[in-house]
Each structure stands twice: as structure tokens, then as C-alpha cells.
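> forwarded from #structure-qc
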């Protein structure tokens, strides 16, 4: 319900605003604080396992495989924990409101806890089985504290405005910021990682500035972002929120259910692309240093594609229906990933079609992907990144639209409850990707290479070998990977992505039935309801005053 009163300021925070126009400062700070949120998230969800398996903290040989398998089991157990954690936090955020706001306090509290846990993850580490145990403890605590921040942050998005144009613009800004943080952290790690022989110290150095910037960005949200004035009717409903409402709204609202399933496949696809992708380049080019050089270019074209999606989306959304956009994006992605597999995997010889030979300068191996045919894989990369980015923006808008549908159909918005499915999707997808990755490296046999990298770092940290000797051991390990292993790993990589694409598209294609025209009609009917509710509330207030 819209309240068209004056903007209010509560204590030290920026207070609230009314209407459908999001204040400029709120839109900018809220959106771009996501850069450091996602950077911090990717440091943990994308690289904590890399840190674990290559920093010399695990055992060697058979013990290494046992410990890596145990970590995979820990991820599976955390899936069960997520089933409780997300409804717990959505329940708390929806019901417990502070004087300083409904969302901002939880955003800040979650950020403080997350910063402390992330620093502990990368700076205070035991070794061997003690590391495996602390891996589970740290990941559990990170999941709890970050969920607090994440659910509140994303639940705030649909509450800021229901006007379609404003919503699309704000959603695009949030998506751009998240992408910049995600890609920025990936590029930073790849550029600094070198040959992988200094991983133990590297991630600690990255964690310190990352957590500081993350915490500062969330402080800006707390103090300088305005929340929308709460609808009194929806406020009363929020106070009646129950623990299992997360699953209730999923069951009763088919539009929400279909979007949630589709977004799960999108997140799983994205996690596989990055989680498997680095190793693909490392295996193809014989090491972290040379493979990392190509991976940087891969990320550059991935960013260009993603940025293009943000630029093109407003124009495309005006001219084509959401379903048409999803269909074209789906066929584009399928074609691009199949092309990537055909030219990027050594199917026809000991080198893939898209390959550039390294050169040597002053005893150092250098690689320019444009000196040869290696650059060919960047063409499908650009187009599948652009198509995925546009599809994801459609999914985010549909998720917000499904909240409007819930209010229209069932009389309840409960943004925190509905949007709790987005981080739950993300974490379930991340955990499942880790499991798929573990299966893929064991099934293809490349885990032996990762064991050798871990052992080389372990020897270096113990002072048994020099840095140059550790680098040589790592290089030898990567160059020993056979073509059959590379093809098997790539088949897991691209095959899993294609399955995710099919799931992502089909759930929207056959499950989401609300057209743009129908959604606009829902908004008109809700506006009439809001006006009536406002009039009723004002009349009750006047009646109460007249009896005093």
C-alpha cells in the first residue's frame, strides 16, 4: 500500500520514503554496494574449496582423497542445514522490525558477522583433519551470517518500488553491481595466483581488504539508504509470519515456484561455468600460470558479454515479450556451449582447435591467445554470457512480479519470505556444484594432479623445497594429464551446463503463465485496493482521535 506522506528520518539512518520513485542516493548506494557483497561471496563460495585443495593444508596421497571426499560430504550436510537456515532467517526478517528499519539492521548485522568469519577462514587455519573439521565449522558460520545479510538485502529490492520501469532499472543496476563484484574477484585471484605455489598466503592477503570494503559498503546502506514506508495492512500480515511460510508460499504460488526452480538452474550453471572453467584452462594449457593467462581473457569477454546484456536489456524488454527473450537466449546458449566444446576440447588431436602455443622469453613461459587460434573460444563465451545475462534479468523481474501476484491472489506480499528463495537457490546450487566437481575430478582422474599441487605447496611451506622447485613440481603435474582425462573432465563440464540450460528454460516456458499484460492488470487492481486500504486506515485514525 502506498503512503503519500512526508519522508521520515529515524535517528542516525536516512529514514523512509513514499511513492514509487526511489531516491537517487538510495538507488545508487543500494545497487552498487552489491559489488563488494558479491566479491566477498565469491571469495568464499568460489575459492574456499580451491584454497583448501591447493594450499598444502590437507594430507597427501590417499589421505588427500579421503579428506577431499569428506569435505564433499560436509557440503551435502550443509544442504540440510540450508533447508532450515533460510526459512529461519526469512521468518526473523519478516517478523522482527527495528526502529531503524525492516531490512537495514539485518543487512548490517549480517555484514559484521560475515566479515569476522571470512577473515577467520583464510587467516586462522589448522592442517590435516583439523582443517577439514574447521572447514565445516567456518562454512556453517559463514552460511548463517551471510544469509542474514543476503535475505534482507534482496528482500529490500521488491519493496522499494512496484512501478515496472523503476523496477527494471533498479534490477539492472543491482545485477550490474553483482556481476562486477563476481567477475572482479575472479579476475583478481587469477591475476595474483601465478603458478599456484603461494595460495596459502595469497587468499589471506585478498580476504583482508575484501572484508573491509564489504563492511564499509553495508554501513553505507544502513546509514544512507531509505526504506519504503511500510504498508500498514502488509505490516500486520508480516507480524503473523510463520516459520514454514517459505515452503507455504512456494507450494501455493505456481509463478513463484517456477521462477525459483528456473533461477536455481541458472545459479547452478553459473557455478559450474566458473568452478569447472578455471580447471579447464589449467588442464588445457598445462598449468595455473599459462591457463590463468587465458582465463583472464575468458573473463574479459565474459564481462563484455554480461555488460552488453545490461545495456541491451531495457531496449529488448520494451520490444519483445519475456518468453520470446527466454527462448532466443536459450537457443543462443545451447549453440554457444556446443561450439565451445567442439573447438575448445582436444577431440581430434592432442590439442583443441582453439589453441595457442606458449612462447618463451628469458626463461619464462608466456602465452598470447591471439597468437594462434586460442581466441576462438572467446566468441561463444561473449555470446553465451550476453544471453545468460539477459535471461537472468528476466528471471529477477519475474520473481518480483510473482510477489505482486501473491498479494493480488492471496493478500500477502512477504518480500523477505519470497526472496529468501533466491539465496537458498544460490547456496543449494553452489553446494551441488561442489559435489559435481568432486565427482568429475575423481571420475576423470585429474584429482591426482590437484593432489600433486597440494603436495608441492605443502613441501614449500615446510621448507623442504624452494619456490622454483615447487613451481616445477606443479608444472610437471599439469603436463602429465592425458587427452582422455581432459575430454572426460570437459564432458562433465559442458554436459552439466547443457542440462542446467534445459531446466532453466523449460520451467519458465511451461510453468510461468502470467503475461506482461496480465501483470499490468494486477498492478492496477492492487493500486485500487491500496487506495481503499489507505482511506480505511485514515478513517480509523480520525475516529480514534475523535474519541480522545
Amino acid at each position: 500500500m502506498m503512503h503519500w506522506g512526508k519522508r521520515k528520518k529515524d535517528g542516525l539512518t536516512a529514514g523512509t520514503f513514499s511513492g514509487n520513485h526511489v531516491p537517487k542516493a538510495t538507488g545508487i548506494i543500494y545497487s552498487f554496494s552489491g559489488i563488494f557483497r558479491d566479491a566477498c561471496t565469491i571469495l568464499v563460495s568460489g575459492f574456499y574449496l580451491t584454497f583448501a585443495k591447493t594450499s598444502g593444508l590437507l594430507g597427501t596421497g590417499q589421505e588427500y582423497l579421503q579428506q577431499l571426499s569428506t569435505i564433499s560430504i560436509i557440503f551435502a550436510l550443509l544442504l540440510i542445514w540450508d533447508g532450515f537456515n533460510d526459512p529461519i532467517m526469512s521468518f526473523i526478517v519478516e517478523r522482527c522490525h527495528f526502529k531503524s528499519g525492516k531490512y537495514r539492521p539485518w543487512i548490517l548485522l549480517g555484514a559484521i558477522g560475515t566479515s569476522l568469519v571470512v577473515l577467520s577462514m583464510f587467516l586462522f587455519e589448522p592442517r590435516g583433519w583439523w582443517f577439514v573439521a574447521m572447514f565445516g565449522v567456518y562454512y556453517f558460520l559463514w552460511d548463517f551470517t551471510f544469509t542474514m545479510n543476503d535475505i534482507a538485502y534482496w528482500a529490500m529490492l521488491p519493496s522499494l518500488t512496484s512501478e515496472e520501469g523503476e523496477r527494471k532499472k533498479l534490477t539492472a543496476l543491482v545485477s550490474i553491481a553483482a556481476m562486477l563484484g563476481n567477475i572482479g574477484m575472479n579476475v583478481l585471484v587469477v591475476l595474483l595466483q601465478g603458478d599456484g605455489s603461494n595460495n596459502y598466503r595469497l587468499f589471506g592477503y585478498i580476504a583482508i581488504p575484501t572484508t573491509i570494503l564489504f563492511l564499509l559498503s553495508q554501513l553505507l546502506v544502513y546509514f544512507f539508504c531509505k526504506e519504503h514506508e511500510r504498508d500498514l495492512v502488509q505490516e500486520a500480515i508480516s507480524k503473523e509470519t510463520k516459520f514454514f511460510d517459505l515452503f507455504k508460499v512456494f507450494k501455493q504460488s505456481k509463478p513463484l515456484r517456477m521462477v525459483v526452480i528456473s533461477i536455481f538452474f541458472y545459479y547452478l550453471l553459473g557455478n559450474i561455468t566458473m568452478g569447472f572453467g578455471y580447471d579447464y584452462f589449467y588442464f588445457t594449457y598445462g598449468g595455473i600460470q599459462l591457463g590463468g593467462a587465458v582465463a583472464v581473457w575468458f573473463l574479459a569477454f565474459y564481462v563484455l558479454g554480461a555488460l552488453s546484456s545490461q545495456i541491451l536489456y531495457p531496449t529488448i524488454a520494451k520490444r519483445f515479450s519475456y518468453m520470446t527473450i527466454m527462448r532466443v537466449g536459450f537457443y543462443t546458449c545451447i549453440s554457444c556451449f556446443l561450439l565451445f566444446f567442439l573447438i575448445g576440447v582436444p577431440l581430434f588431436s592432442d590439442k583443441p582447435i582453439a589453441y595457442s602455443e606458449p612462447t618463451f622469453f628469458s626463461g619464462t613461459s608466456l602465452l598470447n591467445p591471439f597468437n594462434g587460434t586460442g581466441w576462438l573460444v572467446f566468441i561463444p563465451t561473449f555470446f553465451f554470457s550476453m544471453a545468460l545475462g539477459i535471461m537472468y534479468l528476466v528471471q529477477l523481474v519475474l520473481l518480483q512480479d510473482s510477489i505482486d501476484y501473491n498479494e493480488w491472489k492471496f493478500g500477502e506480499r512477504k518480500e523477505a519470505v519470497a526472496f529468501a528463495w533466491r539465496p537458498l537457490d544460490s547456496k543449494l546450487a553452489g553446494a551441488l556444484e561442489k559435489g559435481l566437481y568432486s565427482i568429475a575430478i575423481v571420475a576423470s582422474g585429474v584429482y591426482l594432479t590437484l593432489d600433486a599441487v597440494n603436495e608441492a605447496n605443502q613441501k614449500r611451506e615446510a621448507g623442504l623445497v624452494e619456490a622454483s622447485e615447487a613451481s616445477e613440481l606443479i608444472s610437471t603435474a599439469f603436463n602429465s594429464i592425458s587427452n582422455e582425462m581432459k575430454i572426460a573432465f570437459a564432458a562433465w563440464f559442458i554436459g552439466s551446463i547443457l542440462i542446467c540450460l534445459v531446466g532453466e528454460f523449460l520451467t519458465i516456458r511451461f510453468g510461468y503463465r502470467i503475461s506482461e499484460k496480465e501483470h499490468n492488470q494486477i498492478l492496477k487492481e492492487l493500486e485500487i485496493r491500496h487506495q481503499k486500504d489507505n482511506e480505511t486506515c485514515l478513517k480509523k485514525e480520525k475516529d480514534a482521535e475523535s474519541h480522545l
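QC bot note: DSSP finds 20 helices and four strands in the chain. Residues 2 and 504 are 34 Å apart (CA to CA).
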